[in-house]
């Protein structure tokens, strides 16, 4: 079933948008601090760790940061979920409980009307239906069972004991195929492939549950932590951050720290992106009431949509970059000052080069004064040149006539003599 309902959305855009912006700013600020402190902790660990064998414990390494690896040794009993009597030969077992529930999806149109649709889905979290636009869609308020995680006892890595805090870092990606037993039947559940469920005839109803199990099939692991006799404790750095790491597979200390560095850098950019999206989205929500007013005039609504979209992106990016820059000044003051000096030096150098280029261009190509700004003297000279050009032909004719008469005058003088 998929039904819809339409309601007028309340005018809480400015408050909601401001809340989004604040959340984005807090996330960006926290992320920069987390990134720096994590990197400092990794750098500190780089200078202190030592690689050791897991087969024999050296008491001289107590209190030191060690990296070791090997094969996990499990107890013969494996690990068990006693409630449903599910046992696997693993160090970690996870129970996941899902309930069939209503989910509401709402979209707001350009006129501020919110259109909500409803669909059924499996979810491992309770979906609160009290705030649904349509009260006819209701979910149960509690789960009949809870999700949980179980760890094997007396798990060893060579001569070391591995506790549940480290085992919790194992991935549980292998599904368990379940079978009917007294515990599941007593709970009113039937085995169906990977699930214990109360669904009848493959037709789930709201409130039905299904329970699945998954476990870790890791064999070899690597650990980076402080040696404490025959077990491990977290490494605490000087800035308060810690390293207590278990990785699947065989790795030395350098490889573990390199992986932590890569994970830190990846998380840094992911959180930067999420924080920036929150800030941009917040500004967009704050402007949305104006967009709804502009939509009453179709052309104006389209134009305003493009303009407001551009403004929110530019404004959101600007605010995000400012927050990141201020966080750098807080968490990386020396690096930030050096970076600012370098940027300032580059700007000054570019300005000097531009000024020098303009000066050279001016010397090679002097600026000529426009005609309408010439002085009276320049105008007089110009007029005389033009007059001379106009009278030149008549002057040449006169000279030619005088040249033609010259022989006659000479002959007359000779006759008189």
Descriptive notes:
By secondary structure, the protein is an alpha+beta fold. It has a domain at 4-9 and 49-249. The protein is built from seven helices and 19 strands. The strands form four sheets. Strands 1, 6, 7, 8, 11, 12, 13 and 14 form an eight-stranded antiparallel sheet that branches. Strands 2, 3, 9, 10, 15, 16 and 19 form a seven-stranded mixed sheet that branches. Strands 4-5 form a two-stranded antiparallel ribbon. Strand 15 and strand 16 (231-233) form a beta hairpin. The longest helix is centred in the middle third of the chain and has 42 residues, at 253-294. The chain is flat, with a radius of gyration of 42 Å. The model is unreliable at 371-375 and 406-417 (pLDDT under 50).
Strand/helix succession: EHEEEEEEEEEHEHEEEEEEEEHHHH
| Unreliable segments of 5+ consecutive residues | 371-375, 406-417
Strand content: 15-25%
Share of helical residues: 40-55%
The helix/strand class is: alpha+beta
Oligomer: single chain
How far is it from the N-terminal to the C-terminal residue, by CA? 140 Å
Radius of gyration: 42 Å
Q: Based on CA inertia axes, which overall geometry fits?
A: flat
Mean pLDDT: 84
Sketch the major β-sheet.
Answer: 8 strands, antiparallel
Structure summary, number of beta strands:
19
Number of helices: 7
